Amino acid sequence: MESFADRNKLKGKLTRKKIYYHLGSMWNYSRNPNHCGEVFCWLGLSITALNLFFHHLLYRYNFFMIILSQISPLFTLSIMVFEATLASEISNNKRFGNQLEYHQYRQRTSVLWPITSEIYFRLPKSIRKGLFFDLDMYNKGLKKTS
Fold first, then answer.
1. Contact 46, 70 (CB under 8 A)
2. What is the DSSP letter of 124?
3. How far apart, in whole angstroms, are the C-alpha atoms of residue 48 and residue 50?
């Protein structure tokens, strides 16, 4: 997912640099599918580690290793939400924030988790903020459109 999204982004930058939000495919469902892919990658690795740890449950210090293996995806999620995605959103807000089409794209597209725009647009703000990380800090640098 991450590689596919990055490839689409690079291809889009090489062909039509000024319209990042028209990259298509995964970018229609998430404004940062590459960040989502990174989180999914580490989540998958931690689930694999859980399976291994439960198989060897009798070994000493196993509980500590289980906890440690589950911290990794949470740490990655926090880095993606509060660092990488924040930087990406602020940069895009500064570049495209005066375009009405970009504002519409932001309203109908999830920040991190992929979801169709028809469903996302109808979700209450509390769900958008709590489950989809559509936080106010991502509005920094966003210009008002008329």
1. yes
2. -
3. 5
- Are the C-beta atoms of 102 and 22 separated by less than 8 Å? no
User: Cα Rg for the chain, rounded, in angstroms?
Assistant: 18
Question: Which residue do the tokens 């008329």 mark?
Answer: 146
- What contacts 75, CB < 8 A, 6 or more positions away? none
Query: 135 φ, ψ to 5°?
Result: -90, 155
Give this prediction's pTM: 0.80
Model pLDDT for residues 57-93, shown as the tens digit of each residue: 656 666 777 777 788 889 999 999 999 999 999 998 9
Burial 55-72 (b: 16+ CB within 10 A, else e): eeeeeeeeeebbeebbee
CA–CA distance, 86 with 65 (Å, rounded to integer): 31
Do 123 and 132 touch, CB atoms closer than 8 A?
yes
Per DSSP, the three-state class of 79 is helix
CB atoms within 10 A of CB 7: 13
Q: CA 109 to CA 93: how far, in whole Å?
A: 14
The pLDDT mean for the chain works out to: 84
Query: Whole-angstrom Cα distance, residue 122 to residue 101?
Result: 18
